[in-house]
Write the structure tokens for this entry.
Amino acid sequence: AVPGLITDLVLSMDDRYLYFANWLHGDIRQYDVSDPAQPRARGFVATSDLILKMIIRGKRAYLAVKEEGVAIVDLGDPDHPRLLGTARLPWPEQAFASYQDISLNGEVLYVANGRAGLHVFDVGDPLKPRRVSAINTPGGWVTHLDNDGRQLLTQSFSTNLQRYDISEAAFPQLTGTLDRFSTVRDIAIQEHTFQLELAQGTGIVRALPLAAEEIKLRGGTRADLHFAAPAFAGDYLLYAFDQRGRQQLPGVIRVEAAQK
């Protein structure tokens, strides 16, 4: 028999049930851990593909199933959890989808869908989840995301990080991009900061990704450049682009607080 490989562990808010995603077998399992010394197996739900991310909210589980969609599972009966509906893209978009990561904001579900981009679903009716918007994100493939109810962060395969305003939850608005040169395993928003789990031995490089809004030439070798404020606080490098390619300019621009 092939052993399981657990990728996600979630404990219920009342500390009574433990859920884990069995990535290799493509299923989730529920255990009663009210007596931690004697956990008891309860419910079991199988999926049609690998489970890449699991979210538990109240009596529902949301499962990012690699090439199938986001399965919504009713956990109301611990012994008999049941599939309610699946959020997936219409054909032929579904052929390009890869459900990498998910993030929930009330009844709005954000999906990092690989090369299919960022997709937003209304899951208010779990039996019939429906897509309400889609974004072809800068940088290509979307692999990770998280939100805090005010902002949504997404990471693309080309190692760019995008920030979206989700004041209107179903229609994210891009407000900034952070260029990085490192491999990210996961991202999360904690209070007013975002956290990146990096692959071993990598770091973050921040660059100002905006074009100058105004350029005033002062002689043949000097110019004053005016930029819009970056979306993120931090240290920024300045680059110039000409026929010779990209050149880093000396010095660092420090932004003390997030700006709009």
Notes: DSSP finds no helices and 24 strands in the chain. The CA atoms of residues 160 and 179 lie 5 Å apart. The first strand starts at residue 6 and ends at 11.
